[in-house]
Protein 1
Amino acid sequence: MEEKDIYILAIESSCDETAASVVKNGRTICSNVISSQIALHTLYGGVVPEIASRKHIEKINQVVDQALEEAQLTFDDITAIAVTYGPGLVGALLVGVSYAKALAFALKKPLVGVHHIEGHISANYIENKELEPPFICLVVSGGHSHLVKVVDYGEYEILGRTRDDAAGEAFDKVARAIGLGYPGGPKIDKVSNEGNPDAIHFPRAKVAENEYDFSFSGLKSAVLNYLNSCEMKGESISQADVAASFQKAVVDVLVEHSMHAVKEAGVTKFAIAGGVASNSHLRDALVAACEKEKILFYKPSPIYCTDNAAMIGVAAFYEYQKGVRHGWDLNACPGLKLGER
Ligand code: KG4
Ligand code: ZN
């Protein structure tokens, strides 16, 4: 191992994935271990916060051990410990934060707290070694829908955000309403392949005060109204047609806002991030739109779109290089804003 190599051991526990990863020099993933709780939460139709926290505490040692083992490294080789400290579920975040603090304290290594969304955005650096800021990034996850200008590493300008539901939340709620179950995103993605996206016209909401903002609650209500009216009329519904038509309404708005933002910002690069960014129809639509507008399009592989610790290690590397270190008073911040430290 060369003296200058920087190995970051990163921990992520903000929602329902217990994850640990070792990242070398910012962009090389030595290991990426994810213990998903999806099967457990499926029983309840969504994430149950207390169950998530309890599962994190049960799994975290094992996941960290495996991350070191797969990287063929020991704690001695690690330069710094990184952890997601917000936003997310407070109990879930506290498990990762306390674990990381204890580890950093015992090993006498620096501690770097990372913003979860900064992690999602940074996932783009893993497979696109040439990607550097500035670029526009569409962040669409279960808890967030943001259009962000990545001005520089760790420097963000939020152009637009959702006024109500996040895109992933809308996917999950609609999936539940049409009987697909949890988690809704991947199921709608799949069943839509058999449906007609133009079968039902659902609204594409515009937010008057900010052209980059999103609103998905009206769309969700429109789907629920459609389902109710079919039921009252005794008409059967096509799950695939509803899924495909709903998905098209979401994708149309995301693509339109993104292309508008890229053109207005005068940048040539556009990236996507977050769980919904793994949606195959959204990815295809963005490939086509970027080709038409002659914009370079970057997307992480689906495994780096949904929650993972590799993305946290990448973000931590750039924070570490900037001199960011957190103290023993680091706490979980469920409502942490992007760009805050
Ligand atoms: O980024 P993520 O793993 O967790 C959060 O930070 O929220 O995102 C989870 C969200 C869920 O709402 C899930 O339904 C959605 O991402 N999702 C998808 C797909 N895969 C995951 N949504 C649409 N299509 C997918 N293929
Ligand atoms: Zn996430």
Protein 2
Amino acid sequence: MQSEILLNHISMTYQQEGKNSITALEDISMGIEKGTFVSLLGPSGCGKSTLLGIMADLLQPSSGEISIAGESPRTARLNKKYGIVFQNAVLYDWRTVEQNIGLPLEVMKVKDKNNKKEWLDRIEEMLELVNLKDFAKYYPHQLSGGMQQRVSIARALAINPEILLMDEPFSALDEFSKERLQDDLLRIWTKTSKTIIFVTHSIAEAVYLSDQVYVMSPHPGRLSAVVDIDLPRQRTQDMRESKQFYSLVSKIRHSFELEEA
Ligand code: ADP
Ligand code: MG
């Protein structure tokens, strides 16, 4: 089976004028299957955002090869193969929820006279997917942080990409909203069958959500372990207290300790 995302010996060095260069990633290889939920987990500075940026064609690696849905990151970007969600919702304050969600469709010219209905239907479908139908006419500042992040997810999925790239999307939320959003995201993932790459520094979050966790270590950023999460689908909150959950968390924690030893 062909990998949806394939990285072959990717390294990334930031050249800084007048300062030492920084090796953010060293020799990263991974193959991610279509439709899986994968986390990139590690402490701050281990290169998670750099790696996601390379997948999203926001950064060019110093060496190595990468393919996204069988294409170069550039072509994949132009063909709208992925959507991105960042830690802060980055919504436009002067646009309502539905106008924010519709933005990528406007950019793609879905909103011209001929397909106005298609445009409205798609926004409606996205509002329903993230449970925000009653908030279509609200402005971002009228929403909680969790709701704003649901708008970001809807906006990223509006163009129906195959892949969703997420950089610590729930890190700024309180513990209660975070758990709710994690369940929302899993429901959306099950319903839409996207491939999700989820960046986080929380071990428990990575275990709860993922099929596979790629554990990364800093200085320089590299892959230190790949852990399969064999908890049953669908995930439920009570699993967080199961023996199996604890043992996966401690397995990952040990892989960090071994690195430091
Ligand atoms: P993470 O997302 O895991 O916190 P980053 O990918 O942001 O890690 O950063 C990895 C390393 O690369 C860090 O040491 C960071 O300081 C460095 N870095 C990130 N972006 C730049 C940049 N634009 N210029 C120089 N160094 C950078
Ligand atoms: Mg980061």
